[in-house]
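Progress report, Aim 2. The chain analyzed during this reporting quarter is listed below.
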Amino acid sequence: MSVIQSIRDKGAWIVFGIIALALIAFILQDGVRRGGRSTDNTTLGKVNGEKIERLAFEEKLTLQERMYGAQGAQREQLVGGLWNQEVERIVLQQEYTKLGLQVTSKELSEILFGENSPLRQEFTDPKTGVFRVNDAKQAFAQLKKSKNAEQVNMINSVYITPTIEQALRGKYQAILQQSAYVPKWMIEKQQADNNAIASISYAFAPYSNIADSTVKVSDDEISAYVSAHSNQFKKEEETRTIAYVGFDAAPSAVDSQTVYNEIKGLKNDFAATTDAKAFLSKVGTDLPFYDSYFSKAKMQQVNKDSLTSLPIGAVYGPYLDGSSYVLAKMIAVKSWPDSVTVRHILIATQNPQSGQIIRADSTGKKLADSIAAAVKTGADFNVLCAKYSDDPGSKDKGGVYPYFPQGQMVIPFNDYVFDHPAGSKSVVKTDFGYHYIEVLGQKNFAPAYKIAYKSKAIVSSNETVSNANAGAAQFAASSKNRKSFDENAIKAGKQLLMGNDIKANDYQIVGLGSSRQLVRWTYEHSTGDISEPLEVGDKYVVAIIAAVNKAGTMSVAEARPLCENIVRNAKKGKLLIDTKMKGTTLEAIAISAGTVVQRNDSIAFASPFISNVGSEPKIIGAAFNKALQGKVSEPIAGTSGVYAIRVESNSAKIATADVNAIKTQLLQSARMAAYRGLDALKKAASITDNRAKFF
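Predicted structure tokens for the chain:
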């Protein structure tokens, strides 16, 4: 018996599912190879000289798509996440190698079969909660004998490799954390800083006293500021800027009216039919017919108050539900509980997902009837369940499903347990096979409704799509440069929109949403190039590349939004100092600035804030300048305005934390910094990223 079979026998359906996904990925991989794509030797990127091969990357990506696609993860998002994982894996492994870090076979065994084993979920007894260590060891012993390379590789990738990587990371983090050291002088300095307190009087002239419109900031001033603070304006990668217009291809009012009329035209026939299921099968519906009942509380449709008040046979609508028009017909009403608890024994005949036949239908029916007869004559239900039930979700629990709501089970099962009183027992057939069911309890009876829905989505007509495409094509053809592009936008009444800071591997543009095709086009062309119409969501977009912003120091245009206000305030500060902050006393300066002298008696060195003003680190620093005690300072341009201060006192308050507490706090901060070490490693690494060429 292989480890796969061993794990399956123990009910590890999750692991078995993952392995199945891996085999699918392997088959797809073979298909790619046979398809003739010559990508085996294509390098997706490099990290400190170590290659990330495209084929290996795509194998992992395919597996992640299978695993996370159902959760709504998009391929483009997975590409970015997987790339980061690969980069982190390589830079960390290179550090482990430098340090000689290893995980021995003994350590690996202790982790796999120890207290925090990653195998706990698959090898824990559901009745006792005890981790079945021997079963896990036996399964892995069988794995060593397996001749199925794909299954072995999958177990390695799911369990062995992640366990080793996690153990190595733990060792690495421990080394960094244990290296943290706080010298005595730092503790004393921190204690002094924590206890330092000052009292000041000040005159304050806010920058807001001068209107922004009166202080212009030139490109040269922005450039000078960027040069003086170049480290703050460094970009690690190139970005691009586009201007674009959109031509709406969303459903028009005419398209909406057409769908409405079509739905309305079916109303009389829908009301007259005696077989709603057959009628909907004939005319089609976007909401499949649910041939059972729901309470009002469980219904998620709009207008449910109107729907639940319909008499049997009546039709409501057409009404708008999201982007669809709907007709609703009341089929029947019953009094049902809102939840029930049952126990059952499943005699499986087939797997409805795979279609695999487990046993003949007649054999399943005969066994289920025999179980029903045995229970009726006094046989122990729990013993029969443990021996015969094919439902891994309830077999180890005596077949019991605690209280569950309407609609959770397949319809025949659901209808029996909600439609029959507590104590009812019967054999019920579903797509899974035959169930011997006992209804154990029911709660909270209320009306439940069977409603049939004829629904049709409002979609764009061919004419709407064609008009949008034609308009975009004409715009693109008549736009030869940026000037004509802008002029055509005005003529067409189109708003000119901007896409800023677009990176080569982005999968969306702010304002447009998912738009990988447009991002790729942007990086395949040059400044001034104009695109053909590109379909993005429910519109056609025509774009022009407005700027290519190279990696390195930002251009003036890029930096302006980040520092224009800082430069403007600096100019305002000089203007205030030159014209308003005049005098030799604080009172005279306040009169000159049109303000009053204010007092703050509790300025803390450890907190760079002034009450009712905000963060002002320059002013806090000046408050602890011994040379200013009892004297008036020169005007100081702060964050929010210009200050002149007089230091009344600065001293230490009574200590509230002992030396050991300060040391512990500083050590914890230093050790927490170890967790940010990965970002530093990635920043220091030499990384070549070619993803944009392939995805």
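The chain is about 45% helix and 25% strand. The CA atoms of residues 353 and 553 lie 56 Å apart. These observations will guide the mutagenesis work planned for the next reporting period.
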